[in-house]
Structure formats: C-alpha cells, structure tokens
Write a structure and sequence with these properties.
With 358 residues, this protein is α+β, with helices and mostly antiparallel strands. 22% of the residues lie in helices and 26% in strands. A hairpin with a 2-residue loop joins strand 9 and strand 10.
C-alpha cells in the first residue's frame, strides 16, 4: 500500500486493492482513520479486464444498484465489483500519529516536506534520534527535501526508506521498509537500535558568549544567548535579591531596577549609573568575602579613571542601589591605607551576568 503514496505522502486506493491486505491490518488502519472511506467513483482508472491495457479506463454505471463497467478503449462490458469503485484516502497525519505512538516518539512533528516527513524524536540507549520517513518515489538524494528542524545538534537523524536505497542521502543512518511491521506502525526495535547507535550525532555548536556568577557557581560558568535571555527575563530575574546585568548596565534589587545616582542625602540626581559604576559593583559581587579597594578591581585596571574617581564611583553605586548592607567596609591593611570593601551576601540570592574575560 505504501508504494502508492506520492512525494507529499498522499494516496487514494481502491477497495479491491485494500482487500489484498491482511484483514486485521485493514481493520487496524481503518479504525484509526489512517485509511478513510472517501467516495464511490464512477470510473476505474486502471485495467480490470482481460486486455491488460495500461491506459485502460473503465466507466462504471451504478444507477441500477449493481455496478456495471464498460471499457472506454474497446467499448466492451467489463465485470466490476462495488469494492473496485470504492475509494480509500490515506491520511498521512493519522499514520504519523500511529508511528509516534508505536515507536514512543515525541517532540515536534509530524512535518511533511517534499519527499520526506519528519515524524518525531525518540531515545535509545541514552542517544536521542529523529525519525525521517522518505517517500517511495525518491530515487536520488536531490529528490529529498528534509523539513526544517529535522536536523538538530546533539542528535542522530534516522531515515526509514519506503522505496529503494538512495545513494548519498545526508542522514545518520537508514532503515529499509522491511523493518516496518505488519501493523504499518512498529519499527523493528533491534534494527532501530543498531541504526541509532551506529549513526553519527551532529555536534553541539553553542556560542558561549556570557558568564554567569551566582551562589551556586561563584567561580562563574559560561552560558549561551538562550540561557542569558532566560535568566534576564523578569520571571527569573526578579526572584534574585540582587541581579546585575553588566552588558545591559543594569542593577535590580528584588525586581526593582536602580538606575539613578543618589546624592549623599539620598535624593536622585540627573546622572545615571554608568558602565564603570556597574562594573565596579559586579567586581565585588563576583568575589564574595574578598576585601578589595576600588583600585584592586579588574574594572579599574582596564579603565582610564583615576584611583580617586574609582573610589568615588564605588561610593555612588553602593549608595544608589542601597548596597550598604551587603557591600561592607573591611579592615585596612595599613594604618593610613585606602578602606577596602567586601561583598557579604549572607542569605541573599544574587546573580551577575557578564561577558567572558577570555
């Protein structure tokens, strides 16, 4: 039956063709609406008489209750049955659902391309794979247009070929239609396991463009753009008592953003917190319990500001984010040395997002 599907996985079959399948298979396919009793036609577009002419078309008259056929080419009467005039439509969406169920597939899908259908994602032996079904009419690799999203980093792509082998097909492994069970849904698990375990997995290519520092990762860890976007979303960000986004030059305290610089009386000035001030604050938060003066920080060492300006900006940002309770004065190493400060988070949840330094 699958020989009849076209490159878009569409097919219409006659009742007598369906009758050649095992009765239990037909019952299974019709009960799941994979084969849908569509219409009764007035023509049979194939040879059903003794002439076996490949261009033969039989016209059918069912007005008397019993179907009567006449060959369009030779004009002679042709005996036909009601099953030959009944049409069944192959529902590819229902079949894909059946494949997903019988082979424990999930994820996105099904998605039909030209000559190929991505069915879903499964796991065997700890390896993730995607299942692709290739239509029988495809003879060359160029005939197969794999749907977008089928190839994903970190998983293998396995193709079930409904037709002949295809040389040069860009997939991890292939399975022949012989591995598809009589129920037209279950793939031979031994064959599938061999294919998945022997298929190359697309390497994971992730650009780790940010660093995240927090209580659980005080030394910092690299994260990608997707993780950065997730962490900086309000639903996640606002759960932190202190959240510093250095690239965005922003500081939040329990969901409230602190942007303006406060003067010594606590009144907001026109001036806003700049990258140097936010960088100085982040330097202390990324180094819990480590006393430093402003000129000991990486931000000072990579900037062109003076030691006095660095000290002044540290005082500004500390005051402006109400940070006196967690950026505390430390002990001087010298009697007349500059006063160091230290980040003491206590039980506060904190997070710093920054660019990697190397």
């Amino acid at each position: 039956m699958l020989d009849r599907v076209d490159r878009r996985f569409s097919a219409v079959l006659a009742g007598d063709e369906i009758a050649r399948l095992p009765s239990d298979v037909v019952r299974s396919l019709t009960s799941r609406r994979i084969l849908v009793n569509d219409v009764t036609t007035s023509t049979i577009p194939r040879c059903v008489c003794d002439e076996w002419d490949p261009d033969c078309v039989v016209d059918v008259d069912s007005s008397t209750g019993e179907p009567k056929g006449r060959c369009r080419i030779y004009g002679r009467p042709v005996a036909v049955t009601s099953e030959q005039t009944r049409r069944y439509r192959f529902d590819v969406a229902a079949w894909a659902k059946w494949l997903r169920l019988k082979n424990r597939l999930s994820g996105a899908g099904p998605t039909v391309g030209d000559g190929a259908m991505f069915v879903g994602v499964g796991t065997i032996g700890g390896r993730e794979f995607g299942l692709l079904v290739v239509a029988p009419g495809c003879e060359r690799a160029s005939d197969v247009i794999v749907p977008d999203g089928s190839r994903q980093d970190g998983r293998a792509l396995v193709a079930l070929l409904l037709g002949d082998p295809i040389e040069g097909l860009d997939v991890g492994a292939t399975l022949s239609r012989a591995e598809l069970g009589a129920d037209m849904g279950t793939i031979n698990q031994d064959a599938l396991e061999r294919a998945v375990c022997g298929a190359p997995v697309r390497p994971v290519r992730v650009d780790l463009t940010y660093s995240m520092f927090c209580r659980e990762s005080p030394a910092g860890r690299r994260i990608d753009d997707a993780e950065y976007n997730r962490l900086s979303a309000p639903a996640v960000r606002d759960k932190f008592g202190l959240f510093i986004d250095v690239p965005a030059c922003a500081v939040w305290r329990s969901g409230r953003r602190h942007e303006k610089v406060l003067d010594s009386s606590g009144r907001p000035r026109i001036k806003r917190l700049g990258p140097t001030s936010v960088g100085l604050l982040a330097d202390y938060v990324k180094r819990p319990e480590r006393p430093m003066t402003a000129k000991d920080t990486p931000t000072y060492r990579t900037s062109s500001i003076s030691p006095r300006s660095a000290t002044a900006q540290l005082g500004e940002v500390r005051r402006s984010v109400r940070g006196q309770d967690f950026i505390r004065p430390g002990a001087r190493s010298k009697k007349y040395g500059e006063l160091p400060y230290v980040f003491t988070p206590s039980s506060m949840r904190w997070c710093v997002l920054d660019r990697p330094t190397a």
